[in-house]
Amino acid sequence: MSSENPPTSPAKAARPFDRRSVLTLGVGAGLMAAAGPAQAQNFAAQALQSTLGEGQRFSPTTLVDLARLLSKRAYTPPPSDLPDPFANLNYEQYIGIRAQPSATLWNMEGRGFTVEPLHRGFAFQNAVSLFIVEDGAVRRVIYDRSRFDYGKLNVPATLPDLGFSGFRVFGDGQNGRQREVAIFQGATFFRSSARGQNLGVMARGLTLKAGDPKGEEFPLFRAFWIEQPAVRTDNLVIHALLDSESVAGAYRFTLRTGDVSIIDTELTLFPRAPVENWGVAGMTSTYLFGSNDRRNVDDVRPAVYESGGLQIHNGNDEWVWRPLSNPETLQISAFVDPAPKGFGLIQRDRDSNAFQDDDQNFERRPSLWIEPIGDWSPGLVQLIEIPTESEINDNVLTYWRPKQPLQPGGDVSVAYRQFWCWQPPERTQLAIVTATRVGKGRTATARRFAVDFTGEMLKQTQTVLELKATLSSATGTVSNLRLWPYPERKLYRVGFELEPGNETACELRLVLEAGGKALSETWLYRWTP
Fold first, then answer.
1. Nearest in space to 290 (alpha carbons), one of 76, 433, 190
2. Cβ 242 vs Cβ 223: under 8 Å
3. How confident is the model at residue 22 (pLDDT cuts 50, 70, 90)?
4. 7-32 burial string, b = 16+ CB within 10 Å, else e?
5. 413: which strand partners?
6. 23/43 Cα distance (integer angstroms)
7. Is 0.70 surpassed by the pTM of this model?
8. What does DSSP say about strands 148-149 and 278-285: parallel, antiparallel, or unpaired?
9. Distance of alpha carbon 355 from alpha carbon 346, whole angstroms
10. Which of 11, 357, 413, 501 has its CA 20 to 30 A from that of 132?
11. Per-residue pLDDT band at 24 (split at 50, 70, 90)
12. Residue ranges of the Glucan biosynthesis periplasmic MdoG C-terminal domain (predicted)?
């Protein structure tokens, strides 16, 4: 198991950003006007304009053909140069740039969604093309200086077409107010959330060479085509063109909102070069410290993390819970699976007392659960944990890594569903892990563990009497196993000590069983010094 183990609306009206009909010059939403002549003539720009640029008819098939065509040519990065004062913005200056209400696409039209184009600057240097699709026709979203409030920045009276860094999506919220439901910005990153949540875990469109000694490759979304939503709809369709040194690809995202936000992702990849380490359905999150990992912590808060663990429902119908950690050295774990049923980074702690952070409210961060659509080839869920001393760093990455490498000349299609939620839609009937605590053991090198399981069956005295805890460690020695049943709290606590000896890593496995059957999910843990 583990080596650790919609239709577009016929209505059409003027848009604040697309009233002018102009000839786009390519891959940066008019951004090539601000770039050099050589860049303006690159193949990607020409191909984009001639197939899916201003005035063209949009077709998902054409987008796939464009990605295939792009993959047969050498990679040319999009422009990342910015004029003053945007070239060297700090965070405070960047967030001071705000779109005017009139800049928002479909504002006050009652379509269920509005879209806010986002300015370039700070960490978001690359120019991205934005298009809308109305009645099947492509309209370019044009950068306009007057559509932004620049705060305290001294901005020239005239600016070239800078393009955008991405966009933010707003959907219907409570009391007739709109709420932010998604943001696509930076490389292939995007986020969403359930109703009442803050943004947290971040998804990736594609993961390439993560954890490789020579460094990770970050693909980019070059352009987006956003279909005009129908009146009072609850779904929004977004298409994207991906490009990188190794891969080109076509994407379709179908966003549905409600108490839970759902994004169906369909993608087709065309490799330029062989890639062995690649993955889809990737996501990143932050884990600084918690009850199982308070190494060198001096903080008034009891815990700081957006996600508490990796949950997997594997092809053997086993439910796995792997608590996250902030290790001293880079840790890479692999959970082999011939046919995964689901996985994701989960936030189970929904009580503010778990964090006592009145600013960040980590208890309101979304869980992100992936459900495969169709048959996935054999592979593994890869988990990478990166040491960090700051809570602003996303130091946890997980994704599905297919067994077969990417090879030039072929194509790969994958589909999956994302649930941005309070808890995954598919829930096990087994007892789940609700706490993992680690501290000093009886000797200088021993570590003491306490793992809490919670479930409805644990309130039954007879069930509790029949339970046994099956514990193992691939290395090191476990001892002093103790059990504390609390039926009135539907809780079963397992305590033990680990003596690692001279080992640099110990793989622990724990499950509650009765009559030879698992009554809990499987707790997996990697201890490192």
1. 433
2. no
3. very low
4. ebbeeeeebbbbeeeeebbbbbbbbb
5. 268
6. 16
7. yes
8. unpaired
9. 16
10. 413
11. very low
12. 58-527
Residue whose structure tokens are 């219907």: 172
Residue written as token pair 């080992």 = 503
Question: For the chain, how big is the Rg over CA atoms in Å?
Answer: 25
Percent of the chain beyond pLDDT 90? 81
Q: How many CA atoms lie within 13 A of 133 on its CB side?
A: 22
Which tokens go with 101? 């209400």
CA dist 53 and 24 (Å) reads: 7
> How far apart, in whole angstroms, are the C-alpha atoms of residue 252 and residue 115?
17
240 — phi, psi (to 5°)? Answer: -145, 150
Residue among 124, 122, 131, 155 nearest 58 (CA): 131
- Per-residue tokens: 20: 């002018």
Distances (CA, A) of 19 to 22, 57, 103, 127, 362: 9, 18, 11, 21, 42
Per-residue pLDDT tens digits for 397-421: 999 999 999 999 999 999 999 999 9
Cβ pair 404, 398 in contact under 8 A: no
- Cα(220)–Cα(242) distance, rounded to whole angstroms? 6
pLDDT digits (tens, 9 = 90+) for 173-201: 666 678 999 999 999 999 999 999 999 99
| Tally of CA atoms within 13 A in the half-sphere of 309 that contains its CB | 24
| 221 and 129 Cβ atoms separated by less than 8 Å | no
